[in-house]
Amino acid sequence: MANEEKRFSTPSLDEIEKCGVTRGIEVGKINHLTHEIFPTQEVWFQCNSTTACCRYHEIPITENDIQRILDNGYELFQFIVEPSPILIKSKMKEGAYTKAYVLKKKPFTTECVFLEDDRCKIHEFKPTACRLYPFTLRPVDDDPNLVSVIVHPDSVCTSVHTKESRSDQIPLPMKPGKITLQDTKTILQNVLKIMIETELMKK
Ligand code: SF4
User: Fold this and answer.
1) Residue nearest to ligand 1 atom 4, measured at CA
2) pTM as predicted
3) How far is the CA of 201 from the centre of ligand 1 (A)?
4) Ligand 1 geometric centre to CA of 118 (Å)
5) Each residue's pLDDT tens digit in the chain (203 positions)?
6) Which residue's alpha carbon is at the smallest distance from atom 5 of ligand 1?
């Protein structure tokens, strides 16, 4: 049991830094106009349903997400951090800030307001970031039609495998067999589907 605990425990910051996780790993690109996908890094993901992502992350939420939740009978004050939008430090540019709406936490906790009995109360219309997780999107500087798909197999999500996954910290569940670019392709197709369904790239 002690070994099992170690095997699936949270990696230290040192270990995370060593495998480049803090910077995120680009696993591929998507052209959101032509819908072409370009896998670049082998990755495999299967949600482990720990709900850790619902407990420890700040969840950014788009205006389309907000509208979908309102359309399903919730009121703004129930799920948006006020005052909104707030300014958050940009992860892309040193010293820059981005305007953002952020999903509310339950009082005095780090837990999302929509988490109930380890389940998402709004699963059918949850925010885009939740649907994409543990992947995120980043614009590509020299081509506005491309977005980079980034994974952060960090201390919260233990269900991502990349080539950098450490043999002593193998996340659950394990993929039987080798991770290939075909796995990445499947993930990118799903990311593209979410982008289309949530109208993420529409101006
Ligand atoms: S909206 Fe649902 S999936 Fe997203 S953080 Fe909250 S409980 Fe988790």
Assistant:
1) 130
2) 0.80
3) 22
4) 10
5) 333 333 333 333 343 343 333 457 899 999 999 999 999 999 988 888 889 889 988 888 988 899 999 999 999 999 998 888 887 776 656 777 777 889 999 999 999 999 999 999 999 999 999 999 989 888 888 898 999 999 875 556 878 887 766 545 555 667 777 889 999 999 999 999 999 998 876 64
6) 54
